[in-house]
Amino acid sequence: MTALRTILATALALAACSAGAHQGKPHAGGIQGAAAKGVKADYDIIHTRITTEGNIATFHVAVSGKAGKTYPTKTGKLGGSTVFSYVWPTTIDPYVVGFENKAGILAFAVTSHPDFDDTPPYDENGDGDVGNDGNLWHSHWVVLTRDDACGKDALKVVDIPKGAKPRLPKTWPGFPILLDSPGWSPVFKAESLEVKVPFDDIGVVEAASFDGVTAALRVNASVHSPLLCVADVFKVASGKLTLPGKVNQ
124-143 pLDDT, tens per residue? Predict the structure, then answer.
């Protein structure tokens, strides 16, 4: 009888593990998709969602490989350097996070770029130097718009014209673009990436639509407007950047 109980217990445990693994893929809710040939696995989005609990919004993405595995190649200079990114374009008004009202498409992004550091208040690698952490994955709010100077129908981060004084978040890092460095820490786990972001008014998030994008951006070689263009889109969760995702669905 004891042996039978042991066998049954083992069988149930194995079944539970199998069921848990099955339930974890595909990830629930949000925008679902299949793995794509020709897209690097760590940027091959198969699922993305935004959920809320209390005043916290969780930005989630899953890929067909190991999230965050590949980093841009260091060039040694700002001009012409590359930024790799996981991005959630949203319909949230940029005013909510500190920019001008209707300044463009507000997107949350997790980025890596070894040639510059745009999170001056933070020492992500803990070495006492706040200016050498750009290669580590970190979070941003960016405001996007289309500009043919970046390529036909291509997106860029909105430039700040010389002499202009737009409304900016307190954690704006000083670059002449609509970029914020709020310091929310990305968490990578196997195929998934999640970031928890607090909001004063969570209702504006819950009413929003979103999409998921993986992309490479490039700093203008001459370091002038347009300063930061989307140079290569690896994958769009919805296929055509239609922002069909609904928060908490």
Answer: 767 787 666 677 999 999 99
Residue-range domain boundaries for the chain? 29-246
What tens digit of pLDDT does each residue of 196-239 get?
A: 999 999 999 999 999 999 999 999 999 999 999 999 999 999 99
Q: d(Cα 187, Cα 109) in Å, to the nearest integer? A: 13
